[in-house]
């Protein structure tokens, strides 16, 4: 007798992709920016990690390019309810960037050129879950999608994936970012539908 798992049949699956609750699939790539697209030249670009004790670690563009990169293909989920399956990126894992950073901090506040911020627990940046990406679909990352480089943290709602990333501040206590301080969820897990504070 065939044993069929109810869970398997009860879920909408498309080539292994799954939609979190309340989301719909889009095949386009919407642009969502809270302000103007900042112009950052590669000569001036730098990425800074600042620890809870004030120690700074910096990478310029050449130094970022010299680090080993990965090519994650991931599904992304925006809190405005679109999801996009199978997006292809190239960038440096945060495991590589944070490897030699001495810190015991649990929280991170990610900062962008143009002053956008978002808060993420440090553990959600580690173990292959987050990248600083500089290429999308085999091309340089377009400025409207966060080029020269953006954070990619696909297991959280896409507002956590800060475009035009310029640094990460490590903190002992959580500080809220741009959307979190106006009511969006501190963590933002799409699978638990954590859209707003209190969800
Ligand atoms: N710096 C910055 N990063 C940002 C945003 C922003 O307004 N500024 N918007 C966020 C939101 S709400 C989403 S859904 C994604 C959108 O990325 P996209 O424009 O490449 O689709 O970027 C996130 N990162
Ligand atoms: Mo979003």
From TrEMBL:
Domain Oxidoreductase molybdopterin-binding: 35-179
Any Pfam family: Oxidored_molyb
Domain of life: Bacteria
Chain spans, region Disordered: 1-21
Protein name per UniProt: Oxidoreductase molybdopterin binding protein
């Amino acid at each position: 007798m065939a044993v069929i798992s109810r869970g398997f049949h009860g879920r909408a699956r498309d080539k292994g992709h799954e939609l979190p609750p309340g989301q719909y699939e889009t095949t386009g790539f919407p642009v969502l920016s809270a302000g103007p697209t900042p112009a950052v030249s590669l000569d001036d670009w730098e990425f800074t990690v600042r620890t809870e004790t004030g120690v700074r670690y910096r990478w310029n563009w050449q130094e970022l390019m010299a680090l080993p990169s990965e090519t994650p293909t991931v599904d992304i989920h925006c809190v405005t309810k679109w999801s996009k399956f199978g997006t292809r990126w190239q960038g440096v894992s945060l495991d590589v960037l944070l490897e030699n950073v001495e810190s015991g901090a649990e929280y991170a506040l990610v900062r962008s050129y143009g002053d956008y911020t978002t808060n993420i627990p440090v553990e959600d940046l580690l173990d292959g879950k987050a990248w600083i990406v500089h290429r999308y679909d085999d091309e340089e990352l377009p400025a409207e999608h966060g080029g020269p480089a953006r954070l990619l943290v696909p297991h959280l709602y896409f507002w956590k994936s800060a475009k035009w990333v310029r640094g990460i501040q490590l903190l002992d206590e959580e500080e809220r970012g741009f959307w979190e301080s106006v009511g969006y969820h501190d963590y933002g897990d799409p699978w638990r539908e954590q859209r707003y504070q209190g969800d």
